[in-house]
Each structure stands twice: as structure tokens, then as C-alpha cells.
Design goal:
By secondary structure, this protein is α+β, with helices and mostly antiparallel strands. It contains ten helices and eight strands. A hairpin with a 5-residue loop joins strand 1 and strand 2. Helix 2 runs antiparallel to helix 3 and helix 7 packs across helix 9.
């Protein structure tokens, strides 16, 4: 079971998940350009931005509560550029001062019996870090990149519209998303395609609407980024 709601932290989502209690299972977490802090088995982990699907082998009854930060927000909360955590899952204590990470872990443990209480603890900590951070998210640049890649614009056009050079744009994207604009575009397009397919759209229609050259192109991209077919993701 997976549920989510909009967070009180700007541009973030609070989510929670429970695995079936009868047997262990495998699930794929699709890349999305975001970063998460996750309460799992009594510990706080940070999930960096993925370049491909992350495979999780859940134990029966495993519970997770997480706060997913939109592009550009996670690096401010965690204090490191997104690309330093690309394709990684690391303990929060490796990123924050030990005392701060320990206090949050203790508070989360006390609140772990209720999703709402635990979510509030994570949100409060994230809001505090955002408020105290010496640097802020360049929301205009992040928004321009996301909008540009979703529209299928060339990187040169996105850079020009944002008023920066292509190399500087690439560096800023690495900091905010964990990868450059071309990779971000592939990932966002794939997520759109999977969403359309899960809502029942025929795969040929998905390919056309999501901006792929044809259905074969769609199939190659989905398999490249997730390791499985689009059909497997919709079952």
C-alpha cells in the first residue's frame, strides 16, 4: 500500500508505504529527479536522485515514511549538491552533524507509531533546515529547466531562455537534479509515459503524446531507465 499527500514544506510530498505482511516482495522506485528522507526500520536514510529504477526488496510488513523534495529542494535540506548522492542511499548521519541527526532519529522513533506524527517531525526538521540554509534554491532556473525539457526544447534554447551558458546550465542542473538537462528530460518523459500507460492509454498513444519517435523508441527508453518493459510496470 502506498499513499501520499502534499507536504507543508514547499515543493515536497509526504508519503508512506507498507509492504504486504505475507511475503517479501520486490518493487521498483522509478527515477524522478527528486531526493527523499526516509524512515525505514528505525533509521533515517537519504535517497539521492536516481538515473535508473532502484530495486527494493521489502521484508513482509515493512513500513516506510518519507518526505520527497522537488528538484532543487533536497540539496538545500541535506547540505550537499544532488550529484554527490546520485544513485545512492546513505544514512542521514553521514550528511548532517551527528548530534542533529541523532536528535531527529530519536524524535522520529518516538513518533513512528503514527504516520501523521512522524510526518510532522520530518516536515518540521526540513522546514528548519530550509529556513537556516545559507543558500536558496534558484526557483526560476529550476522551473525554466523543468519546463524546457518537458517541452522537448534543445539544451541551447533552455540555456538561452534562462540567461546562462550551456556549461553553467549543466553545472547548475547537476547541483539541483543530480544530472544534466538531457538526462532529466529522458526521466521526466518516461514518468509521463508510465503515468499515461497506467491510466489505460494504448502504448502507441502513449508514445505519441509523451513525445517519442514511435512505440519502439518508447519501449527502448522505458527498459533502459527501469530495467523492465512498460507492460511490466502497468501490471
Amino acid at each position: 500500500m502506498y499513499r501520499e499527500r502534499a507536504s507543508r514544506v514547499p515543493d515536497a510530498v509526504l508519503w508512506w508505504s507498507t509492504s504486504p505482511g505475507s511475503a517479501a516482495g520486490e518493487r521498483r522506485v522509478l527515477p524522478d529527479g527528486c531526493m527523499d528522507v526516509i524512515w525505514a526500520d528505525g533509521a533515517l536514510l537519504v535517497a539521492g536522485p536516481d538515473t535508473a529504477a532502484h530495486v527494493v526488496n521489502d521484508r513482509p510488513g515493512a513500513r516506510y515514511v518519507g518526505l520527497r523534495f522537488g528538484p532543487g529542494i533536497g540539496p538545500v535540506v541535506f547540505g550537499v549538491p544532488a550529484h554527490e548522492l546520485r544513485d545512492q542511499r546513505v544514512p542521514l548521519a553521514e550528511l548532517w552533524p551527528c548530534a542533529e541527526a541523532r536528535r531527529l532519529t530519536e524524535r522520529a522513533g518516538v513518533a513512528a507509531d503514527m504516520v501523521a506524527r512522524l510526518g510532522a517531525v520530518l516536515e518540521e526538521a526540513a522546514a528548519h533546515r530550509l529556513g537556516a540554509a545559507p543558500r536558496r534554491v534558484d526557483a526560476a532556473l529550476v522551473g525554466a529547466v523543468v519546463e524546457g525539457v518537458r517541452a522537448g526544447l534543445p539544451v541551447a534554447r533552455i540555456a538561452a531562455d534562462a540567461g546562462v551558458g550551456e556549461r553553467r546550465l549543466h553545472r547548475r542542473c547537476l547541483d539541483a537534479f543530480g544530472y544534466g538537462p538531457r538526462t532529466l528530460g529522458r526521466i521526466l518523459r518516461m514518468n509521463r509515459a508510465v503515468g499515461l500507460a497506467r491510466r489505460g492509454a494504448p502504448f502507441a498513444t502513449v508514445a505519441a503524446v509523451a513525445g517519442y519517435a514511435d512505440q519502439a523508441h518508447l519501449s527502448r527508453e522505458v527498459r533502459s531507465l527501469t530495467g523492465v518493459t512498460l507492460g511490466a510496470l502497468t501490471r
